[in-house]
Amino acid sequence: MTFSVVWFKRDLRVHDHAPLRAAAERGPVMCLYILEPSLWRQPDYAVQHYQFLRESLRDLALHLRELGAQLQLAVGEVTEVFERLRCTAPELGDVSHIFSHEETGNAHTFARDLALGRWCKQSGVVWQEFAQHGVVRGLRSRDHWDKAWFAHMSSKLLAAPAPASLQGICLPWVKEVWPEPQTLGMSGFDTPRRQQGGRAMAVEVFDEFLDKRSHWYRGGISSPLSAPTACSRLSPYLALGCLSMREVVQTTENSMHELMTSDDAQHQRQAKSLGSFLSRLHWHCHFIQKLESEPELELHNLHRGYDGLREEEWNQAHFEALVEGRTGWPMVDACVAMLRETGWINFRMRAMLVSVASYALWLHWRPVGLWLARQFLDYEPGIHWSQMQMQAGTTGINATRVYNPIKQAQDHDPHGQFVRRWLPTMRRVPDMFLLQPWLMPAELQQQCGLQVGKDIAIPLVDFETATRLAKARVHALRSDKEVRAAKAAIVDKHGSRLRRQHSSQGDKSSKRKTKSQQSTSLQHSLDF
Ligand SMILES: Cc1cc2nc3c(=O)[nH]c(=O)nc-3n(C[C@H](O)[C@H](O)[C@H](O)COP(=O)(O)OP(=O)(O)OC[C@H]3O[C@@H](n4cnc5c(N)ncnc54)[C@H](O)[C@@H]3O)c2cc1C
């Protein structure tokens, strides 16, 4: 007898799951999750990811049970687990096939997948991988990428196997217990108010977004006050594959087209919001594709002409002030406090944090990115590292974006509700000093019962001076002849083609566009 293994990784669902369907069609199937101690020791993962994973696996196990299989947990390194499985249980039969989704993960999972590929070849096991999102493995040219994305997103969703239809197989050794994070060498605590894992939660969050919260998506996603409810909050569920990207795209399109048929202005507005949301779903894969095509970007500058820009000037005091939320800029410190408590912050505030770190504090993106990866419950290596480099100005192809935290506070938290919510000391600061509390006169400090330099940090640098200097250094490199010359190859490999296509297609061709293409082209104001 032979059997297949469905190796679950970051695709924790039974719906729209091609590997599960393919395995089920072959006969007996083992549904396996491998908890890899070496992965959990990596510096980009934290206890919150581990606990969120556990919740998501519990939910997956319930769904699999309904289908007739028990989720198997093995603790160990991937090739060792498969080798053990092959040798320990001849009575079970041979593992003939491993089915999984392709994963664009960090350097560690990339190396692990290469090792498993070698093991499969030696052992005569067929390992078949399926595309997980719109990311294309072995992409030859970016020119065809958008077309492939739209084709994947509009293809048919795969239903879950029928109830009790799976012939589930169990591991041939004693059931393993879920290790506590400390036993895997993880330190730190879980994030107290993070989102809860699992498909059931994901579906609830998505439904609520489509029904109600998406009204406020456009216009609501930039302020950290409105963003927690205006944004979809699907990111951690997409990162672990509790929902498939294709089902999110198709369900959103259906809702959007329904709303568009209405004469109600509110519905029209909501439809536009969903159009903006769809364009983010496209970015999701666009950014992950960068890491897929160039795994080194997790570790090195995308444009190697920027090597040496910040590397030798690491400032530990600046980094510690940032991590501890005492940079002195209330908007920055409040974001750090919110992240610590909830594991999430909106896009604009993430960009502001990295911009302040990279320009005003002149910190290299890699250690800052590792710290943020642990803070973000939705850590997705492809998006994360591409965004880190984009905000730090080392891609060589994006305009320099510097977010001034004082201006951000004026625009997105003019009455100080956000900073006062997350920084209790700011509640004692009068309105006129909200933006620059360190300027409070000594007498006023005394009246308010606080001390600048003790209860309220003084910024480590003058923002304007430090960023002017930083921008000048980045721009000096940017205008270097060799650096400029190397840019074309990066644009060719990683640049978005969507805007170019749309402008050259003109209106006439829009009738021939797929539903996804029409929806996504509704909003593509930021071309990355
Ligand atoms: C420095 C930095 C690091 C980031 N790291 C991550 C990360 O590790 N994981 C992650 O999912 N997002 C990351 N983002 C992108 C973005 O901030 C989050 O996707 C978003 O805040 C998640 O909340 P949401 O699901 O409610 O977003 P929504 O606005 O509701 O968007 C829906 C989905 O679209 C995708 N998306 C949204 N914005 C972007 C974007 N700018 N780029 C690519 N995809 C996007 C995400 O999958 C998101 O879940 C990062 C942004 C920056 C600036």
UniProtKB/TrEMBL annotation:
Domain named Photolyase/cryptochrome alpha/beta: residues: 2-135
InterPro entries documented for this protein: Crypto/Photolyase_FAD-like_sf, Crypto/Photolyase_N_sf, Cryptochr/Photolyase_FAD-bd, Cryptochrome/DNA_photolyase_1, DNA_photolyase_N, Rossmann-like_a/b/a_fold
Annotated keywords: FAD, Flavoprotein
Cofactor annotation remark: Binds 1 FAD per subunit.
Alphabetical list of SUPFAM superfamilies matching this protein: Cryptochrome/photolyase FAD-binding domain (SSF48173), Cryptochrome/photolyase, N-terminal domain (SSF52425)
Pfam family of the protein (one): FAD_binding_7
Segment forming the signal sequence: none
Phosphoprotein listed as a keyword: no
Residue ranges of the TM segments: none
One annotated GO molecular function: DNA binding
Residues reported in the UniProt entry to bind FAD: Y217, F277
Region ranges (Disordered): 490-528
GO BP: any one term: response to light stimulus
Co-factor requirement: FAD; (6R)-5,10-methylene-5,6,7,8-tetrahydrofolate
Family matches, as PANTHER family: CRYPTOCHROME, CRYPTOCHROME CIRCADIAN CLOCK 5 ISOFORM X1
Protein name: Deoxyribodipyrimidine photo-lyase
Organism: Undibacterium nitidum
